[in-house]
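As a point of orientation, let us examine one representative protein, giving the amino acid sequence and backbone structure tokens.
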Amino acid sequence: MKEVKGGYNTYGFTIGILMNESTFPRIPGDLGNATTFPFPVRLRVVKGAWYKRVVVQADQQLLEPFVEAAKELEAEGVKALTTNCGFLAMFQKQLSAAVRIPVFTSSLLLVPMVHRMLNPGERVGIMTVNFDALGELHYNGCGWSSNDIPIVVAGLQTEPHFTALFRDDQQVLVYDNMKADMVRVAQRMVSQHPEVGAIVFECTNMAPYAHAVQEAVGLPIFDIQTLIRMVYEAMH
């Protein structure tokens, strides 16, 4: 048997996930549901990281508690860190500098790769929980700019169910309603922008609806699950 090194209290947690604070339901496919992954993950809730502070306000005072939580997970033995909110791309550089393990805060990190995969003239579609709040702060955090990569962004903040669940921390999730919002926005984006060649979900809570959207629009769908699986495989 190969040599095994100690130094931790628990083992086998390759991926650590920094979680916003919330109590809304998390269904299979969501990062906060233990059945989502075929391997164990370690979660850490960052107190005070509510939807409004992270998404709407881009509250920079949250950086310190996120750094502290990242260091705690690193000390507990996780091999790579992600988050459960794509808007935390605003802290990508700072979190990467704070620990000695890989950090991938957001599926927005996939956008340059997806762009290079597409045919000339095609654009990367981005679906986000809040169109008005997403911008260069988050793109730049992931090392790119909308000035360099052609994108089309569609938000769900005007739909009746999806964003309201997270914004208001509602206690009841109706899957069919959430799926309908997702499919409707994706179909509208592709109809208005036929140059969209693939879609990246900014919001980690969109992952449970990826197959429904892919079936509805017939395009490749990339999300935080895509990135987590890639990193996990790279570390085994």
Remarks:
- The chain has a mean pLDDT of 97.
- The two ends are 17 Å apart (CA to CA).
